[in-house]
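Lab meeting minutes (informal)
Scribe: AK
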Amino acid sequence: MRKNIAIIMGGYSSEYEISLKSGNVVYESLDDTKYNRFRIHIFKDKWVYVDVNDNEFPVNRHDFSITINGDKITFDCVFNAIHGAPGEDGFMQAYFELLNIPQTSCNMYQAALTFNKRDCLSVLKPYGIKTAESYYINLGDTIDEGAIVKKVGLPCFVKANKAGSSFGITKVYKKEQLKAAIKHAFAEDDEIIIESFLDGVEVSVGVIKYKGEVTVLPITEIVSDNDFFDYKAKYLGESQEITPARISGDMANKVKNVAKQVYDILKMDGFTRSEYIFKDGEPHLLEVNTVPGFTKESILPQQALAAGISLEDLFGNAIEEVMKSLP
């Protein structure tokens, strides 16, 4: 009997358009002989099921069900394709846990922790995970440019603490540019992390649960045509994403081991894609994404294909992994 699968997409953040693309690729890729697929758009002003003719049917938020022509439909599993809030920060995970509906991403705590760059790095540092030097600012704090430069140096990166897809990020070369960069970051979040510039090879590493095993996918090297791996580089083709990465076997083993260590330390489930820059031959963690891009051009699907895993298998496996854990 085919399972009813809700594919949630959209969200409340600046990443909603990317999420809609990801969700539609999941919808198109899942095997329709195994699954009844339902596109569920989650926005602040509406939660709706969107059918093949773009008709909208409201979602009953009390039990996450929909009603079509008088028939009530409930879901066996949710495929989470929401980047940013509320799909990557723990809110949807908590909601589905309360409703006892399995979903494909990590649990609530892990989602909330990894979505907060500052907190995530703080948890991982005692385990020996290397990171950039950092400086924190909250909205309303006094901004001391001299203290910032003394701590992290120049150039540095000013980042919104809880945002994805490089929204709210500026690379700063001069102390005089800091206030404008901080204002830009505060447009995305009320917390900021400022990090030292790491000059080295940047790589992205996908880790998934595949057929019951924690699996590290082939590594992707990031070569941005821009000053750093910004939104345009990520989504508008202004970068090279080279899989497998052009790095030595020793470097590859180091970053694979760190990526798996991060996955295990944080007790992750589902998908992760973590970003690293090599400094002095050692991988330094930038961030961990728990709902990475799922379009055909996105990094993790590219890595899966390099490992011989089709999109149909990649997405279907995520559903089967969470479904088999049910009592």
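Next up, CB showed the second protein from the same session:
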Amino acid sequence: MATGSGSGGTPARELFGSKWGFVLAAVGSAVGLGNMWRFSYVAAEGGGAAFVILYVIMVLLLGIPLMLSELVVGRKTHLSPIGALRELGGRGWALLGGLFVLVGFLILSYYSVIAGWTMRFALESAMTGFPGDPGQHFGEIAAGPAAMGWHLAFMVLTIGIVMVGVQKGIERAAMVLMPTLFVIVIGLAFWAATLEGAGAGYAYYLTPDLSELMNPNVIRQAASQAFFSLSLGMGAMLTFASYLARDEDLNEQAVTISFADFAVAFTAGLVVFPVIFALGLQDSVGESTVGALFIALPGAFEAMGGPGRVVGVLFFVALAVGAITSAISLLEVVTSSIIDEFGIARKNAAIMMGILIAIFGLASAHNTDVLGLVDQIAGELLLAVGALSMAIFVGWRMKDPGAEMLRGAGPRFTGAVPAVLFLVKWLLPPVIAVVVWFQIWATRDAITGFFGAA
């Protein structure tokens, strides 16, 4: 077992056994249910290839610098978020670490409900096929005792992986699950290319509308997608980096993680849109992620007969894989902080916090309106606040973050470090502050609507 020690004489800490173990675990954190569909939809609505161009620009300008910010803090201290920020910034900055733990707790509480849906759809489609009326079926299982049961089952699986440890649990799972996900998504994309109507799906997804390049709303959406799809602002990358050896090239890994995440999201769109257009279901998708994943696509797979059933099973297996790898990182943020702050054994910390999250998540499993509200508060607003705070911390409070970025860096990246630091200090705070501003108003509307409906 590889071990290391944090600065200041902290106890030996388990490390990832290999560079690719870390990279695949980090990619697994970023690749989840949201970006496997949301990227495709937002791209189509934002000018197709024009949005893709803007997204790549935003990953370079915002995503990679912010990811590096989390990575340098985690690796430098070999501590979880609360301890890491306290050590580098003082006691007051430990509150930001506490925010990361809270965000991980809240997001996982409802994310596991959605993940439970994917597990159920994967199992049901394999055993009995897709329902004849997917809309009615989803309405019957999305909330209530059945949803609670699948939510709890998913949490048991997540707890079981995290409690085993970094190498034997998180890394081993990532080394199996992520290549599986890549193979399934790529295979489905090749299959989708053979469908009649695939060309219309590609045209909807990728036809460039260059006028959208200067559309402020599309620019904002591209920035938000780059930010949210990389699991930034909740301490996941910071936590994973705390299990890294000192000689790893953080710059190379940030680039690899970012573009692997983009590749999966982009390729998923090459599956979704040909299927939708082949069956003429584009009008039924609308703006709903839920509607696309659990109503429109199951209906499409069922209409295709035997081959559609096989493809549908693989598609929902891929979704479930993405869900579990993301959930692992969320629980690890919470678990590692409990271990570091209170000296509790990993097994006990994972079980204790996993049970608390599972209990809290029962409200979202009982009522999808609760799920939507918690998502807006934690998955949108608090995530943006966390990202803004991290950019300010690394850009203005942390002492010489560039030295940590240069440690282990290859010649391809050493010259880019000053530019990255400039972006972290001067570009990220105002841009993310705009995102926070929009999320404040969206959250206000969500809260008002929730209690108004109640």
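CB comment: Residues 189 and 271 are 5 Å apart (CA to CA).
No objections, moving on.
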